[in-house]
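Closing statement on the FE2/S2 (inorganic) cluster sub-project.
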Amino acid sequence: MGIPQPAFYIFKCEQSAPPGMPKPSCVTASTQDLFQHLAQVIMKEGIMGTVQPIRTSCMNRCNAGPIMLVEPGRIMYANLTKEKIDRIVAEHIIGGNVVEEYVISSELWDAPITPAEMKKQMGR
Ligand code: FES
């Protein structure tokens, strides 16, 4: 039997926008330890490895930040706090139920456009 794949990847953006940038960043003084908190919760639950937290650059939804993306499923959570992360790990990652009340609005995170569809729209 081979090495099992992770069941989940959790992407958390970690880009701090320099002062004066037009958009707010997901990472501010009060939210900079959210990735560390996520990793600690995963370790405390004993699920590190089958759940892989990943630091990313900006995912272009800063105005709903702090955000994180759970794959598989393309579930994006918005306006995160440590308490919300605890609940997402318990209910979604371990329990298998998406925490709907923390999911980003579909106005900001609608169904994807396939690459083939996008090429068609661009006339290529
Ligand atoms: S820095 Fe998180 S979405 Fe932009």
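The domain at 8-121 is CATH 3.40.30.10 (Glutaredoxin). With this model delivered, the sub-project is considered complete and its resources will be redirected to Aim 3.
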